[in-house]
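Please, is this right?
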Amino acid sequence: MSGVALPGRESAAASARAYVEDALGPAHPALDDVRTCVNEAFTNAVEHTASGRGGRVEVTIVEEGGRVRAEVADDGAGGARPHMCDDPLAEHGRGMRIIDALSLDWGVRAEGDRSVVWMYFEGCPTSWA
């Protein structure tokens, strides 16, 4: 599985979106949803973790079993993990709600201090090429 490691700066979110388009191709039916969700997870990593304090964020896109898996890994937040806020009207926490609405499934796995937000999306129909 290969991906891209980007600096933990807001300006690098554009590079994360470009990586998604390069990985899937501009005509991929899930491109907009994947790109939006990766952008949200990337922005959260920069804002809430060590990634945004001189660290990096890793983005990986893989097509497997007829689905697209996107992963965004941060540099850790002292044990805090990404989660969806209980209050839909809260000022913060909307990014995870967007991910929840656009992806088929998502979750967070710990890798030491790091958190990896993983998301699944519909892949290409067999007739699409």
